[in-house]
């Protein structure tokens, strides 16, 4: 599928006229299908069954670069890491890749007048304005005038890239210098590269610095002399300036939250430890400390905050029964409004009921509150102090006042089955 898209892309450009080049260049900026197909193809060109397919691709990429259209130039520049890996890993197998890299290098080291091209830039400071601040708006109390003058004297010298000599052919002596210069140009326009292109760039850098090593935990061992790793390819030579350019790419990817950039930083750091490059270790550890300590920078892409279902329990809900939820009873309290009932009130009532019943259990038992003794009806002897069938007469009175007498019939002790006689009350 990737080969078919690339073939259509090649044939379309060959059929263009000069007036259609600008429109075609604008369209290529968003031609993501062809971009991804080229990344897949450059990972392993040997998988393609089309003859001289890589040569045709390299020729068209060089035509894009020297066409004069900036969009076509950026289109070719995004594949520099993949082309560098192919050239370092297969110097003799893919000669067209080396020719493409050498041609791009020679175009960049000279200007339009065929003079040595020099790129100048300065380090940002407080004394000179930058995209972060305006030195003219600084308050006098913020920094002294003498300090500003000292900073201006220190920053009077600009940092220059170049001049670089032109190269006729790539060899072991100049290959590292050429690929380092190409990576510098890649970093200069890295903001123009889309996200998936940066992801492939990080993967390519990891492959380049890790090839020929067997990773065991946090250590890294060379396998060139180990016969058990014959299937692993040879280790690639990388210089200290080239690793610094790789760290520049990684830093930009970390800022943009590109997937795999953290793993690539670890691989470059391990290669710097193996090669004992102090400047590489200084920069790599500085990047690690920056993203570890700075709260405003996120290494991983931001993830949406999701509340776990396990965090929600029954205690998270306090249901409240409103008057509308309670059926209205017309007969009971028609005038008064029904109040709201909450679970807390119900729990308080239950607590009071339980506490009252538990308090009664702990009261001391009184002798008079015991159970009544059972009365045996078949007792042979009458109970003591029984009233029998005698009549009782009670008189109340004294002096000249009227007296009241209560006269009753015979009383029973409760054991008889007879109906009790009525009681007569008379006044004397």
Automatic annotation (TrEMBL):
Keywords: Cell membrane, Cytoplasm, Membrane
Gene Ontology terms: cellular component: cytosol; plasma membrane
Region (Disordered): 323-428
Intracellular or extracellular location(s): Cell membrane; Cytoplasm, Cytosol
Composition bias, Polar residues: 378-389
GO terms under biological process: phosphatidylinositol phosphate biosynthetic process; protein localization to plasma membrane
Keyword Methyltransferase among UniProt keywords: no
Superkingdom of this protein's organism: Eukaryota
One Pfam family of this chain: Hyccin
Signal peptide span: none
Protein family according to the UniProt entry: Belongs to the Hyccin family.
Protein name: Hyccin
